[in-house]
Amino acid sequence: MAQQKYLHQRPIQNPFTNPFSSSPLSNSSLSNRPISLLSRNGLLLLLALFVILGVFLPWAGSPLFPFPNTLSPSQSKWRDYSLAQAVEFAAKNGTVIVCAVSYAYLPFLNNWLISVSRQKHQDKVLVIAEDYATLYKVNERWPGHAVLIPPALDSQTAHKFGSQGFFNFTSRRPQHLLQIVELGYSVMYNDVDMVWLQDPFKYLEGRHDAYFMDDMTAIKPLDHSHDLPPPGKKGRPYICSCMIFLRPTSGAKLLMRKWIEELRDQPWSKAKKANDQPGFNWALMKTAHQVDLYLLPQAAFPTGGLYFKNKTWVKETKGKHVIIHNNYIVGFEKKTKRFRDYGLWLVDDHALESPLGKLE
Question: Does pTM surpass 0.85?
Answer without folding.
Answer: no
